[in-house]
Design brief:
This protein is α/β, with parallel strands linked by helices and about 350 residues long. It has 10 helices and 14 strands. It is elongated and about 65 Å long. The C terminus is likely disordered.
Length: about 350
């Protein structure tokens, strides 16, 4: 078995399934143009080798980790300038992850933990951005025209220890400085307590429970930072200015909503707000049978992930859908539900 230390670049087109659904033939053609004019020439210019293409994804290896980061910067810069006539949501944009690690070589292919970590970093990277491991940052710092933003530790499937992740930015600001407007940075959200619109104070427990479970579900998405329940609930019952909340908590987005429960029916409205601009980027109203409440929460959580253009990993989707109870009685106040434990993932 042959092994070698190599720099691995994993790239994937953001929201590719949505682009394909809107215009399959056009999207395939635009991806082909991007690869022939931007991606492949950049890889070749920096001494990389395309190991394999996987639909909208690509795996590339480099003998130099500095070359890998410079290549990623070149790809993202050129891709960001391409298709100026299109809205950002309609453009071909990449997420890129880079790791330096030991790989198993089999023919022209490479395998192993080093490749897996690069793929996970790619899923964490913001749209149009680059995420790297701490090892890459250590090797590249001072050797490439970029700065690094610490995104904290992330748990990676099948890796015992958490991986420290850094976002890479072109060197137009000092390290540690706040990103300029429009610069990709880590996505984050605060789920404000959903307002109880039922006119019955006893339904507060029900609306609070829905808010708490959405917080729990979103916290399972590795590419998203979620404000803790205790932090979010300091705003309960208050009239809040969403941009002010976003600045105070340093989050990119805020989720707010309301719950109205009547008999066996429940209506939930939810709005995802851009913390910087104060505008809605997603909003929906749901009218469902009370027995569908848990499936509805999953639907809301996954809609938020989609609105943020995050890629939900298979194990994360499974974790969100996993629950310890499907009994809506779990949302009754403790005195009324002592025989019905709240939703649990234990």
């Amino acid at each position: 078995m042959q092994r070698r230390l190599t720099a691995i670049l994993s790239a994937d087109v953001a929201d590719y399934s949505g682009l394909m659904e809107a215009d399959e033939a056009g999207t395939l053609q635009r991806l082909k143009v991007n690869r022939s004019r931007i991606f492949d020439p950049s890889v070749a210019a920096h001494g990389g080798r395309v190991v394999k293409l996987m639909g909208d994804g690509a795996l590339v290896e480099f003998g130099s980790v500095v070359a890998a980061v410079n290549c990623a910067l070149a790809i993202q810069e050129a891709t960001a300038r391409a298709e100026p006539e299109r809205a950002e949501a309609e453009r071909i944009l990449y997420r890129i992850g880079i790791n330096l690690g030991d790989v198993i070589v089999e023919g022209d292919d490479i395998y192993g933990e080093g490749v897996n970590v690069a793929a996970r970093l790619q899923a964490i990277a913001p749209v149009g951005g680059i995420a790297v491991s701490a090892t890459v940052r250590e090797q590249v710092a001072g050797k490439a025209p970029c700065t690094f933003e610490d995104l904290g530790e992330h748990t990676v499937k099948n890796i015992e220890r958490p991986v420290r992740v850094f976002a890479v930015h072109a060197a137009d600001r000092e390290e540690g400085e706040e990103p300029k407007p429009g610069t990709p940075r880590r996505l984050s959200v605060c789920v404000l307590p959903f307002a109880n619109m039922s006119g019955d104070p006893e339904q507060e427990y029900f609306s609070d429970g829905i808010s708490e479970d959405i917080i729990t579900d979103l916290s399972k998405v590795s590419a998203l930072w979620v404000a803790a329940r205790n932090t979010a609930f300091t705003f309960k019952g208050k009239h809040v200015d969403v941009p002010q909340v976003a600045r105070q908590l340093k989050v990119s987005h805020v989720l707010e909503g309301s719950v109205r429960k009547a008999g066996g029916r429940v209506r939930i409205t939810a709005q995802l707000v851009d913390g910087a601009k104060g505008g809605h980027i997603w909003a929906e109203r749901y009218d469902r049978d009370l027995n569908d409440i848990f499936a509805l929460q999953d639907e809301i959580s996954q809609a938020i992930v989609a609105a943020l253009k995050l890629k939900l990993l298979p194990e994360e989707k499974k974790a969100i859908e996993q629950r310890g109870t499907t009994n809506p009685e779990a949302y009754k106040p403790p005195a009324a539900a002592c025989r019905h434990p709240r939703r649990s993932n234990a």
